[in-house]
Amino acid sequence: MWIIASRESRLAMWQAEHVQSLLEKASAGPVQILGMTTRGDQILDRTLSKVGGKGLFVKELETALEDGRAHLAVHSLKDVPMELPQGFELACVMRREDPRDAFVSNDFAGLDALPGGAVVGTSSLRREAQLRARYPGLKIVPLRGNLDTRLAKLDRGEMQAIILAAAGLKRLGLAQRIREILPPEVLLPAAGQGALGIEIRSDGHAIRSALSPLADTRTFLEVRAERAVSRALGGSCQVPLAAYCITESDGKTLYLRALVAMTDGSKVLRVECRGEDPEAIGLTAAGLLKEQGAQEILQALNAA
């Protein structure tokens, strides 16, 4: 019997149940889910960047792995820190859902339709920085809570629009709420956005083998490149950093776009590069960003 540690939000449970179903179909035997509430789910009155970052969604699940209550933890990969604690590993990256951001509004068809002063809610500094740079007339406000909580705030009229990951809405059957899918040219996604990552203990050889049919090599290579950029730049919730990689039509070449910005949108650095080695192009992109002045942005943000 395998046990999956999962957050208890509706989206997290969908993800865990999805992995449960696939594992059981792969004849891995019976699979149960251990639902847990994490610190990230409990602290809703402050932005993630101010309370310790997305790792808050992961730590309790890792404790369950460590003490043997669970064998694997299912995460939205964009929530997984770039460096895992000793004794843990990312054993499987599954095929990616839509990695883009979605514009959700009850009154407006898209970002370009919003009037000056319109209130837009978002949970990430990455989105905030890019929105401020492109749409300086909008009022960007923090938006915490699970997906249903965020939609409820929109529906109560607390804001005119919110920006969410398209993948979560599609997975929960809420694609009809999407008014506009935002292309990477408008909002470059977060590293790993749309992909599910499965974490295990490094000594979990049997579960690593059981997970192998669920792994997607193409997604794994793309997100490795994205995460390499973030790792090289010390990426965290405190840094408006984006990285998005696709595999080109030859099936081998990786095309990576990356971005670092000041939170207020006053400075946005962008690079693109191509290659076949995901770690190498990730490091190349990080190096190019540093040449443009990314280090100064990171230092300014860390000092704030």
List keywords for this structure.
single chain; alpha/beta; D-Maltodextrin-Binding Protein, domain 2; Double Stranded RNA Binding Domain; five-stranded mixed sheet; 11 helices
SSE layout and pairings?
Blueprint: E1 2-7, H1 10-25, E2 31-36, H2 39-42, H3 48-51, H4 59-66, E3 72-76, E4 88-93, E5 101-104, E6 119-122, H5 125-134, E7 139-142, H6 147-155, E8 161-165, H7 166-171, E9 178-182, E10 196-201, H8 205-211, H9 217-232, E11 241-247, E12 254-261, E13 268-275, H10 278-292, H11 294-303
Parallel strand pairs: 1-2, 1-3, 6-7, 6-8
Antiparallel strand pairs: 3-10, 4-10, 5-8, 5-9, 11-12, 12-13
Helix pairs in contact: 9-10
Question: Could you provide a short overview of the structure?
Answer:
The protein contains 11 helices and 13 strands. It has 304 residues and is an alpha/beta fold.
Give a structural overview.
This protein is an alpha/beta fold. It has 3 domains: 2-95 and 195-215, D-Maltodextrin-Binding Protein, domain 2 (3-Layer(aba) Sandwich); 101-182, Periplasmic binding protein-like II (D-Maltodextrin-Binding Protein, domain 2); 223-303, Porphobilinogen deaminase, C-terminal domain (Double Stranded RNA Binding Domain), CATH 3.30.160.40. The protein is built from 11 helices and 13 strands. It has helices at 10-25, 39-42, 48-51, 59-66, 125-134, 147-155, 166-171, 205-211, 217-232, 278-292, 294-303, and strands spanning 2-7, 31-36, 72-76, 88-93, 101-104, 119-122, 139-142, 161-165, 178-182, 196-201, 241-247, 254-261, 268-275. It has a 5-stranded mixed β-sheet, with helices on both faces. A 5-stranded mixed β-sheet has the order 7-6-8-5-9, sandwiched between helices. Strand 12 and strand 13 (268-275) form a beta hairpin. The chain is globular and about 55 Å long.
